[in-house]
Write a structure and sequence with these properties.
By secondary structure, the chain is an alpha/beta fold. It has 15 helices and 13 strands. Helix content is 46%, strand content 14%. The chain has a seven-stranded parallel beta sheet with strand order 3-2-1-4-5-6-7. It has a six-stranded parallel beta sheet with strand order 10-9-8-11-12-13, sandwiched between helices.
Length: 380
């Protein structure tokens, strides 16, 4: 295939030096990198996944058997308290350590390019790559740039985005809208026929770290919701045990209607394909994955997310009629329950929301174009 031949030619040009994929901390940083890793692996282009020492990225990458290196990193807390100031001082030291670890990795591997998905673990690598004159490609999934990318954009050769570059005040010729790289299993599953089922299915995604608010709303609404739908609930690690206890406490008639999981990887495409409604925060990656399957979304943005990017994401979609937005401050258990039941009862609205979301987040070619930019050395 022409695309594969082109990538193999690029590999020869790189003299087998690996590309460094950098990011971590949240699923929004990890999974787009996984999608790029899958494509690079299929094209036999060498790469190394760089992540933090704490976080889920090492565990996720291990499932694929890819090379992984952890570096130290410091998180800058943009709120003021004695504890925050103390942690910021400590994290300056962690950042400096990570910077020298990044320099060592770049020198020993000879990597010609890094692809940064953002997150605080990416900043030491970006700064080290700049010092050594290596090419830097960054990707921003949200409609508002995160702190790491706001710093990195100053030194990046290419800036890839999910939303239109016009939403970024500092956009220039380096910016290109490509969508969000999504894992192969999800892309393949999106092309399969729908799953036959006897009841509607709600997929609740509280994230790797878990959303206490979403978990609480689901917990309180369960007795009513399981009467009309099945619920698959990704709770995050912290609250999985309590939700398993809740599942066991449901009446025997509905115990099979609620399935809580701490985390889902390989089975996620099946649940996306089976779902009628997805309840989640307003992470751009989760939104793009739902768009692949043309699924209706009920978004509860994370309050006070960095630069309020989740609210900005959800507002863009709400304005396009592509999702239902409810701010956490305006929600209570009764409102949440009523909303979910009303949506499930209106199949036409669910289909319309899903169709509009799919059109808004056009994901065709995101992975291929991103790999092309990384491997060809494009700057504009």
């Amino acid at each position: 295939m022409p695309h594969e031949k082109q990538m193999m030619d690029n590999q020869s040009t790189n003299n087998q030096h690996p590309i460094l994929l950098v990011g971590g901390g949240t699923g929004g940083h990890i999974f787009p990198l996984v999608a790029i890793g899958e494509e690079l692996a299929s094209l036999k282009i060498p790469f190394i996944f760089i992540g933090g020492r704490v976080g889920r990225e090492g565990e996720v990458v291990a499932e694929y058997g890819w090379p992984f290196k952890a570096i130290s990193a410091g998180k800058w807390r943009r709120y003021w308290s004695l504890a925050a100031v103390t942690q910021n001082i400590l994290d300056v030291g962690r950042f400096i350590r990570g910077y020298f670890q990044a320099l060592s990795l770049l020198i020993t591997t000879g990597s010609p390019v890094i692809f940064s998905k953002g997150g605080y673990v990416a900043l030491p690598m970006v700064m080290a790559a700049k010092l050594l004159g290596r090419r830097i490609v960054i990707h921003e999934s949200d409609s508002v740039m995160g702190l790491t990318n706001r710093i990195s954009v100053r030194v990046a050769s290419k800036v890839l985005t999910a939303f239109s570059p016009s939403v970024f005040p500092n956009h220039d010729s380096r910016f290109e809208q490509v969508g969000i790289p999504i894992r192969r299993t999800l892309r393949q599953a999106a092309n399969l026929q729908g799953v036959r089922k006897s009841r509607p299915l709600i997929l609740v995604i509280a994230g790797i770290q878990g959303s206490k608010a979403i978990n609480r709303f689901v917990r309180e609404a369960l007795p009513e919701i399981v009467q009309v739908a099945d619920v698959v609930h990704i709770t995050g690690e912290a609250e999985i045990l309590s939700h398993k206890t809740i599942a066991q406490g449901l009446s025997k008639k509905y115990q099979n209607a609620y399935r809580p999981f701490a985390f889902i990887t390989r089975e996620l495409p099946y649940y996306f394909r089976s779902s009628d409604l997805i309840v989640s925060r307003a992470s751009a990656t989760t939104i793009a994955e739902a768009a692949l399957f043309s699924r209706a979304m009920y978004l509860v943005p994370l309050p006070n997310s960095a630069s309020d990017h989740q609210l900005a994401n959800a507002l863009h979609l709400q304005a396009a009629g592509a999702a239902v937005l409810r701010e956490e401050k305006d929600l209570n258990n009764e409102k949440f329950t009523d909303d979910i039941k009303r949506l499930l009862a209106d199949k036409a609205q669910l289909q319309n929301l899903g169709a509009r979301l799919s059109k808004y987040f056009n994901e065709q070619g995101a992975v291929e174009r991103t790999v092309e930019v990384i491997s060809k050395g494009e700057t504009i």
